[in-house]
Amino acid sequence: MATSPLTILSPVSGTLLRIEVAPGDTVQPGDVLAVIESMKMEIPVEAEQGGVIAGIAASEAAAVQENQALFTLRPA
C-alpha cells in the first residue's frame, strides 16, 4: 500500500457545489468527497482508496478545471 499522499483531482470542469469532508476525516473507497456541477449535472468526486483527508485545495462555489487538485488524501 502506498504511504505517500494521494492528490484527488477534479474529474470535470465546473463549479464546486459542495465539499462533503473536512481535514482529518477518514474516508473509504467510494465515499463522496465533493459534488461538482457541470453542464447542469451534479458529478460526485469519490475517494478511490481509503485514508484520511490531509488537505482541501478548493472552496465551495469556486470554478474548478478538469484535473485540478481538490484534495490530498493520506492513505490509512
From TrEMBL:
The entry's keywords: Biotin, Ligase
Q: What Enzyme Commission number(s) does the record list for this chain?
A: 6.4.1.3
Kindly give the CDD domains that the UniProt entry links to this protein: biotinyl_domain
In terms of InterPro entries, this protein maps to:
Biotin_Carboxyl_Carrier/Decarb (IPR050709), Biotin_lipoyl (IPR000089), Single_hybrid_motif (IPR011053)
Key word Ligase present: yes
Q: Name one GO molecular function term.
A: propionyl-CoA carboxylase activity
Class of this enzyme = ligase
What is the name listed in the Swiss-Prot or TrEMBL entry for this protein? Biotin carboxylase subunit of propionyl-CoA carboxylase
**Natural source organism:** Bordetella ansorpii
Q: What is the lineage of its organism?
A: Bacteria, Pseudomonadati, Pseudomonadota, Betaproteobacteria, Burkholderiales
Gene name for this UniProt entry: pccA
